[in-house]
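Entry for coenzyme A complex. Fields follow.
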Amino acid sequence: MITLTTLSASDTRPLRQQLLRQGVPLDQLVYDGDDDADALHLGALDGEALVGIASVVRQSPAVSNGTPAHHPNPHSPHAWRIRGMAVLPDYRAQGVGKLLLLRCIDYAFEMQGRFIWCDARIHARGFYEKYGLRVMGEVYDVPNVGQHYYMQRDLARVCE
Ligand SMILES: CC(C)(COP(=O)(O)OP(=O)(O)OC[C@H]1O[C@@H](n2cnc3c(N)ncnc32)[C@H](O)[C@@H]1OP(=O)(O)O)[C@@H](O)C(=O)NCCC(=O)NCCS
């Protein structure tokens, strides 16, 4: 059975490296906001084995290179960013990502967030869409990582 646990930011970095940024040294996988007091880092556990990760931090969309020019509130202090979402290949398509993402959404809602956003790799667009995030703007490139969409969902209502 998969359970969720909270992690420190540093606990997430080996899987960030393995699943999202291969070849990048661990000390370069420190993301903005990682050590903020209200940042949440989640791990999905199969027994004691860490099989998935996700983080959610308070951060305005203005930091994204993909934030569309027509964004209504790019500097919002009530914005939460989902980041570093990844599941080990053998554990994909079994609902682990869903568990992680919904807990991130719930947390941002509990923290009085007004919306959540992420820079989504293009192949993950459908995953985020399942849980109400929508693409804003055009596809854009993140250097050394690939093409992304800026995606966002408001938190005015409780998630599924
Ligand atoms: C994206 C990722 C986190 C999804 O995790 P997962 O555990 O496989 O997802 P789940 O099994 O919880 O899927 C939940 C739902 O989303 C759907 N889904 C999952 N990945 C999808 C995708 N890439 N496109 C469309 N739908 C997807 C599933 O079919 C499932 O829908 P269902 O309930 O109707 O069957 C995982 O594929 C991954 O780690 N990818 C590599 C790292 C990565 O790219 N992370 C995203 C960075 S932006």
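NOTE: The longest helix spans residues 96-110.
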